[in-house]
Design brief:
The chain is an alpha/beta fold. It has helices spanning about 5, 20-35, 50-60, 70-80, 105-115, 180-185, 200-210, 235-255, 260-280, 285-315, 335-340, and strands at about 10-15, 40-45, 65, 90, 95-100, 115-125, 140, 145-150, 150-155, 155, 170, 175-180, 215-225, 330. It has a domain at about 15-225: Spore Coat Polysaccharide Biosynthesis Protein SpsA, Chain A. It is globular, with a radius of gyration of 20 Å.
Length: about 375
């Protein structure tokens, strides 16, 4: 075990909102497999069920941070983590079952390889041989801003045969089980409250990468995620957040290209998806895309200001010079839509890996 990792104070923070059922199913595994290496904290997002009472009675060793209202995923974590003193945070969904020795391999990897954020391998708790939607074996992003994972592209999930059981640098790490240095988290002011939920961890990772940080996946640690515990994967509300927040993500962080041509291209692709939903009889999903675009346009001036602030912050981080330290490792210089739907390349291993950017800067 790495001696530096042993001395670090790590806090596993679980955000809860009316999640008694999930806490009853999953919190025990976290307590049993984490308390030797970390403090376990439940951040309660203004719950009205009995989850806080149950936690205090069943696991008195778990620290409770009670917020007065539901601030969303981003706001809830920001408020809760501001009350925790630790070297490392682990943002863990309430519907995640962890395994023995899941923490130390990740911390050791982060120490040895210089990562600021990292995730374990994430399998599906309902079908444990499959890699899971929210993170799988590490996150990537294509030229149009569509996100995907090693082991999961759209709704195709790979069986985990150990093909990703090695440490790798990726573009983003999943918020379902996100290890992050507290100093790095606070240096970029945490998660963006405007996202409310969904893709806020990708935004966080991208902001870090724009400052030269590295994001990884640890192949020697595994957790199991139920998934869809808070928002159903195909719910109109989640689809709304998905489309709106993906546009937020691009405006704020994609500094390599001109802003408006990028937005126009992406909104056209979203429109195609919307009419596909409509042709399949999914009127609520069609409406979700329209609503997402409407609200994005309302928020565009604010996002443009954030984009400018991000560019200024990155320049400041690079000693004020024009040479910025953007780290685009994990960027896929092709369209995942074309690969998946037209070329039928539906697994990560089938993609053209020569088109995946790889910098691997040395510490």
């Amino acid at each position: 075990m790495n001696s530096n990792a042993r001395r670090q104070h790590t806090a596993v923070a679980i955000l809860n909102w009316n999640g008694l059922k999930h806490l009853q199913m999953y919190l025990e595994s976290v307590v049993v497999h984490s308390t030797a290496d970390a403090e376990v904290v439940v951040i309660d997002n203004g719950s009205t069920d009995e989850s806080v009472v149950w936690c205090k009675k069943t696991f008195p060793e778990v620290k409770i941070i009670a917020l007065s209202e539901n601030l969303g995923f981003a706001g809830g974590y920001n408020a809760g983590l501001n009350q925790i003193q630790a070297d490392n945070f682990v943002l863990l969904n309430s519907d995640v079952r962890v395994t023995a020795n899941w923490i130390q391999p990740v911390l050791t990897m982060m120490d040895q390889e210089g990562y600021s954020a990292c995730q374990p391998i994430i399998r599906n708790d309902s079908d444990p041989e499959l890699l899971e939607y929210a993170g799988a074996a590490g996150g990537y992003i294509d030229r149009d801003g569509f996100t995907f994972c090693a082991g999961r592209i759209f709704e195709v999930f790979e069986t985990d045969t150990g093909q990703y059981a090695h440490n790798r640098e990726v573009f983003w790490a999943s918020g379902a089980a996100l290890f992050i240095r507290s100093e790095a988290f606070h240096s970029v002011d945490g998660l963006d409250d405007d996202f409310f939920a969904h893709m806020e961890e990708i935004d966080l990772c991208w902001r870090l990468k724009n400052r030269g940080h590295r994001i990884g996946v640890c192949g020697n640690s595994m957790v199991f995620h139920l998934g869809g515990g808070t928002l159903q994967k195909i719910s109109p509300f989640k689809s709304y957040l998905n489309f709106r927040n993906n546009l937020f993500l691009l405006v704020k962080n994609h500094h390599r290209v001109a802003l408006y041509p990028m937005i126009l291209r992406r909104m056209i692709l979203d429109g195609i998806a919307a009419f596909k939903f409509l042709s399949e009889g999914s009127t609520p999903l069609f409406g979700a895309v329209l609503k997402a675009h409407r609200d994005f346009k309302k928020e565009l001036p604010a996002m443009r200001r954030k984009r400018k602030s991000e560019i200024d912050a990155c320049r400041s981080n690079s000693s004020g010079t024009k040479r910025l330290s953007y780290n685009y490792t994990g960027w896929y210089h092709r369209s995942i839509l074309i690969d998946f739907f037209f070329l039928k390349r539906q697994t990560f291993q089938a993609l053209n890996h020569e088109k995946i950017e790889c910098q691997n800067p040395q510490k």
